[in-house]
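Hi R.,

Here's the chain you asked about this morning:
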Amino acid sequence: MVVLLAVGGAVVMFAVGWIAGRSRPVAAPAVPAPDPRAEDSLHADVLALHPMGVVVGSPDGSVEYRNPAASALGGTHVGVLIDAAIAEHLAEARSRGHSTETLELYGPPKRTVVVIAQAMASGRAVAFVEDISDRWRAEQARTDFAANVSHELRTPIGALVALADSLEGSDDPEIVTRVVARMQSEAERASRIVEDLLELSEIESGVQRELHEVALTDVMRDAVGRVAELASRGEIAIEMIGPQASIGSDTSGDRGPIVTGDGHQLASAVGNIVENAVKYS
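And here is the predicted structure, written out as tokens:
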């Protein structure tokens, strides 16, 4: 009897201990506290690699910190203007909480810089400086191109409408032949403008251009051919000088100077120059 009571008591004590152990909260593993020095080093590395200029101004108006991108803006007359703008906007941010400005510096080269300053809780202020010159030039080029395309398309489309009206009711074969030839020329001109627009889209999207050997004589011949109709209407003569320079000459022999490039783009560039010369001659 005594043995059974002893065994029973041991079992009860074991059960009580097991239950108590299950109900006791388990302590989470200790997480080491972050090292402030490591965090400061990480922040410094990030700021050093950031492409945007960062300038921190103290409460008394002096500059406490400049990352490499901000330091690279100095050393020139443009840098002096940017530094003056940074100091002005840091002071403005300390007093009003926020300040921003887009600076257009006419260089040369022309640069567009955005300065954004923000107040900090410590009484300091931080200025972010971003050079958006390339972006601005790209946007300006797109705007100018769209305006030019709109203007240029009005001319051939208007001519096509006028020529179509002149065909209505005409049964003279000579007039019909001449007007149809003019309509074909204007339609080709409109098509080239659309092609230029599509090519610009490809260039901006980063499509790899195919380069090959191009004969400059062929480029000149193509460019002149594009504006031949326009020149004839204005009674303006275009003359190509050099070996095999005439528009209808055989090119099977000497091709003249050879360059590596995009033949269509080269002809388009030269053609625009010749067309402007014809228009404003």
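One quick note: The mean pLDDT is 77.

Cheers,
M.
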